[in-house]
Specification:
By secondary structure, the chain is α+β, with helices and mostly antiparallel strands. The chain contains nine helices and eleven strands. Strand 10 and strand 11 form a beta hairpin. It is globular and about 60 Å long.
């Protein structure tokens, strides 16, 4: 786990940062931990980790049984509130479902978080694939079709900053292009309007992605179709799935643009107000 970036600012709340580090210490490999294990994972002193865990337990974000702590479902509120505030799922879902019905392949949507793509919406089909993907999954942007679409949408300074930041996904891609190769690939993505990753992230995964253009003509997100390389050829991916993907992404982007022109937008079952997402 990559430590949170510290700050010397007088406004920086150290206790809050440590509490977030405790929450982030839990993952698929560390779903249940003792105080000592949490302290080691978060890089904290054991007494500090204990106080933070007890506070989080009081707030309902962790539970403990026999001295072993685990996250509760309440932590989902921290992530799903972000997704709901954007309205990503509510707007994208019908278009993505229609796309999946046409292609019979999974489709996902992601946004860029420095060097990683983070999945914010997904409609899956039951197929065996090398890597498990859920909302919140992170992959290195340079090795994914969606990541290259998003990187291609950055200006020069933002691209340099993103590539200078190490990935926090924990995934080592099969193919890691150098900067010259990547710049050439991103130039091609900008020109053609789509990107493909052919088993560059992991064996068996072949995907194609396009940008979702939001208000002001900016790249707001990326959307893909993911296939198994043994089942779907590159020719079929480009010839059959890409036109449908482009149409679905254009429809989503058009709806985002319409909503962005409204003074306020109500989205989601809870009726929370959210802004149409724009890429950093």
């Amino acid at each position: 786990m990559k430590p949170l970036q510290r700050s010397d600012s007088r406004e920086f709340v150290e206790a809050l940062a440590r509490g977030i580090e405790v929450l982030r210490s839990f993952d698929a490999m560390h779903m249940e931990m003792t105080v000592s294990e949490v302290a080691a994972q978060a890089g904290l002193a054991r007494p500090t980790a204990r106080r933070l865990l007890l506070t989080l337990e009081h707030l309902g974000y962790v539970r403990s049984v026999g001295g072993v702590f685990a996250l509760t479902a309440r932590t989902l509120e921290l992530g799903t509130a972000f997704i709901a505030s954007l309205g990503v799922w509510d707007i994208a879902r019908p278009h993505m479902q229609a796309l999946v019905e046409q292609t019979r392949e999974s489709s996902s949507m992601s946004q860029l978080d420095w060097a990683d793509v983070v999945y914010v919406a997904r409609v899956a089909v039951p197929k065996i694939i090398a890597l498990s993907v859920t909302i919140g999954t992170r992959f290195p942007a340079i090795a994914t079709s969606m990541g290259r679409v998003l990187l291609a949408g950055l200006d020069a300074d933002a691209l340099d900053a993103a590539l200078a930041t190490p990935s926090t996904s924990g995934i080592v891609p099969r193919v890691q292009p150098d900067r010259e190769e990547l710049d050439a690939e991103l130039a091609a993505v900008r020109e053609q309007g789509w990107a493909m990753s052919d088993e560059q992230l992991s064996l068996g995964i072949r995907s194609i992605a396009v940008p979702v253009i939001g208000a002001g003509g900016r790249v707001a997100a990326a959307m893909n179709v993911t296939t198994h390389a043994a089942e779907t050829s590159v020719e079929r991916l480009i010839g059959e799935h890409l036109p449908r993907l482009l149409e679905a992404a254009a429809s989503i982007g058009e709806e985002w643009s319409h909503l962005a022109r409204l003074p306020s937008v109500r989205v989601g079952a809870s009726g929370s107000t959210g802004e149409i997402p724009t890429q950093r």
